[in-house]
């Protein structure tokens, strides 16, 4: 079942039997996403936050061409696919169990991109050894990944591991419960965090987080 409400650029809706799929128009491409692959569950559904973050990237496409991007908790990978279609060098991640759905969608939709995306397992906290400290990412993306309170410390640890002083974190989130707000309060303890977009109909906000600038010129002597 799809979690979609509406998207003006969604082209077709699955209405029959067979494999549920949705087609979107992004950056002049048809992006065809298959849901319910593999174990199913929340990773095999397109969540509104993924579309909203994808549209945000599309509207800011000049910023991400040739940039190094990593997507966390990608699920059907709509956001990472859009980043890839826009010319970014993208690593698309999720848990090992969820990656079948991720892989199928990524490979189907990124045949003629500038940089072939990498699909790779990343369970927050546990798989950080697969991501060397020396790797730099310009953007860390996450759509609807703030929802299980037990994962918050590992998610924060993962962001800390992947982020450096030039990294921008973009998290699109539906705030469902008080605990989701608690995550962003935890995030504020380490990063400068701003809401850069809000889509009221879907109750989704895009948060931008960067490490605080320790600008020498601005420091008291
Ligand atoms: C609500 S889904 C969102 C999927 C996709 N980003 C979207 O918006 O359509 C949450 C995603 O986070 C992933 N996830 C949950 N816990 C995780 C963990 N501990 N480590 C890595 N990914 C996790 C799930 O597998 C799932 O793909």
From TrEMBL:
Gene3D superfamilies: Vaccinia Virus protein VP39. Pfam families: Methyltransf_16. It comes from the Eukaryota. GO terms for cellular component: cytosol; protein-containing complex. Keywords: Methyltransferase, S-adenosyl-L-methionine, Transferase. InterPro entries: Methyltransf_16, SAM-dependent_MTases_sf. PANTHER family: HEPATOCELLULAR CARCINOMA-ASSOCIATED ANTIGEN, RIBOSOMAL LYSINE N-METHYLTRANSFERASE 5. This is METTL21A protein. It comes from Branchiostoma lanceolatum. The lineage of its organism: Eukaryota, Metazoa, Chordata, Cephalochordata, Leptocardii. The gene is METTL21A.
